[in-house]
Design brief:
Blueprint lengths: L6 E7 L3 H12 L4 E4 L14 E3 H5 L9 E11 L5 E13 L1 H15 L2 E3 L2 E9 L2 E9 L2 E12 L7 H4 L11 E10 L7 E5 L9 E6 L4 E9 L9 H12 L4 E11 L8 E2 L2 E3 L11
Parallel strand pairs: 1-2, 1-9, 2-6, 4-11, 9-16
Antiparallel strand pairs: 3-5, 4-5, 7-8, 8-9, 10-13, 10-14, 11-12, 12-13, 15-16
Helix pairs in contact: 1-3
């Protein structure tokens, strides 16, 4: 059991795609790996538009049909003056079911030999002689401390691991988008086409997307530059107005919100015994 094992070669904090993929790769290389995820279930909550290119996915995995909600072959762009441009994509993309995708990636990590633990909330690093030597936290009400030769911060855009280690991870307000997405049903969408709205009317400083998950279901969301929220109009207001205008008949299944860093990746992703990956390192592709 992981609680009896005091030290690992590698501890990964965060069970999203970056964390699970790192854990899998490290375990395949023969390292002892512990992955700690604060939430009850891997893949929940989903804070993602769920779009990915086929080529990007294949860098790491052979696409599994059970991950894919829609295959995308076409794109639609709506300009600020409402000019519409549509064209076929040079390569196909997918809208994923991230709950299934994330779960499978964590399972791949365990099959490679990593230990995955959920409901494990990391609240600090173990530091000795100014070096990171492990993590500490709580698992179902019990305190734990685990040592490691390297700690991987895969704890998302709000990452604390890097900050605890002294890495500069702050993001300027102008470089942080305020994002919201609703999964809606009961609408008419082209199930094989991305839609993007590029307009201050709907998403000042960003864009709005419609990502189909079948004929009558889609992820509809937007990101706006944080400075625009100062005017008293939040991202949710913009999205609600779009839905009322475009899809008044829509029924909302889920709502997710979060920050989206759109500047360059953090300057220092690696330090002694610490590494940041994924959103924690601001390696976000906002397009």
């Amino acid at each position: 059991m992981w609680k009896e094992q005091r030290e690992f070669d590698c501890i990964v904090v965060g069970g999203g795609p970056a964390g699970s993929t790192f854990a899998r790769t490290a375990a395949q290389g023969g390292l002892s790996v512990l992955l700690l995820e604060k939430d009850r279930d891997i893949g929940v909550p989903v804070r993602c538009g769920e779009a990915v290119s086929d080529a990007g996915l294949r860098i790491f995995f052979e696409p599994n049909p059970r991950w894919i909600a829609s295959t995308i072959t076409r794109i639609k762009l709506v300009a600020p003056n409402e000019t519409v441009v549509e064209f076929d994509l040079s390569e196909k993309g997918y809208i994923l079911d991230r709950r299934i995708f994330d779960y499978d990636l964590a399972e791949y990590a365990t099959k490679a030999g990593a230990v995955v633990v959920t409901k494990a909330y990391v609240d600090g690093l173990l530091i000795e002689d100014d070096k990171v030597v492990g993590v500490k936290g709580t698992h179902i009400g019990e305190r734990f401390e685990k040592r490691a030769k390297i700690v991987i911060g895969a704890d998302g855009v709000e990452s604390r691991v890097g900050r605890w280690a002294g890495l500069e991870t702050t993001c300027k307000l102008k470089d942080m988008e305020s994002g919201i997405q609703k999964t809606v049903t009961g609408i008419d969408v082209h199930e094989h086409m991305f839609e993007f709205y590029l307009s201050k009317r709907w998403a000042p400083g960003g864009y709005l997307w419609v990502f189909p998950k079948g004929k009558n279901k889609a992820n509809i969301g937007l990101g706006i530059t944080g400075s625009y929220a100062k005017d008293g109009k939040a991202a949710q207001q913009y999205l609600d107005e779009f839905l009322e205008w475009k899809y008044p008949q829509a029924s909302v299944l889920t709502t997710v919100v979060g920050g989206i860093p759109v500047a360059k990746s953090v300057k220092e992703m690696v330090s002694d015994e610490i590494m940041l990956v994924g959103d924690a390192a601001h390696t976000v592709n906002p397009v």
